[in-house]
Write a structure and sequence with these properties.
Largest sheet: 3 strands, antiparallel
Radius of gyration: 30 Å
Distance between the termini: 64 Å
Number of helices: 4
Strand content: 5-15%
Helix content: 40-55%
Number of strands: 7
Mean pLDDT: 75
Number of domains: 2
Shape: elongated
């Protein structure tokens, strides 16, 4: 900050004049240097003040996590219980399939590879989960539940409670 001290003949104290233009320029330069030298943090490690752009992988991950959640792989964070709703799991896999079709030719190699791999894994998990539910019904460990208007739904285990749209909430 630039200060100019002068003595006024009418005042007993020095007069202080602040050069505002210099102060603004110095502050702008300081911010520019701080931004350039700031360490780049890993995705997800930023504070509330810093937000990174949402990436394609974030959308794919969100839909994949929902599909896994509805196949019972990810328990509800509040109740700790896993829920199985095969129609909702299929819906999220179908949304990823639509995303794959609509973005064809517009993805980077890594984005396309990640989407293809995730879709393949989710489809395999869906088939395995559907078969496991069918076996459990045949063995009498699960009994079918009404789907409240959704066809081809899951079955209920003794002690399981209905979830959204007739899904299952498995005891934790």
């Amino acid at each position: 900050m630039a200060f100019i001290h002068t003595r006024s003949p009418h005042l007993s104290e020095p007069k202080l004049i602040i050069d505002s233009d210099w102060k603004s320029a110095a502050q702008a330069e300081k911010e520019k240097l701080a931004a350039a030298s700031a360490p780049k943090s890993a995705p997800g490690a930023q504070g509330d003040d810093e937000r990174r752009e949402v990436a394609f992988e974030d959308i794919v991950g969100m839909l994949a996590n929902q599909a896994l959640s509805f196949m019972g792989f990810i328990p509800d964070p509040y109740s700790g219980q896993a829920m199985v709703s095969l129609p909702y799991a299929k819906l999220h896999i179908d949304m990823l399939t639509i995303l794959e079709a609509k973005t064809k030719g517009n993805l980077t190699e890594s984005e396309l590879a990640a989407l293809t791999k995730i879709l393949s894994q989710l489809r395999m998990a869906f088939v395995e989960t559907t078969e496991a539910v069918s076996r459990a019904v045949q063995e009498g460990r699960l009994k079918p539940m009404s789907q409240q208007g959704m066809a081809g739904g899951p079955a209920a285990a003794p002690g399981a409670t209905p979830g959204p749209a007739g899904g299952l909430v498995m005891p934790g």
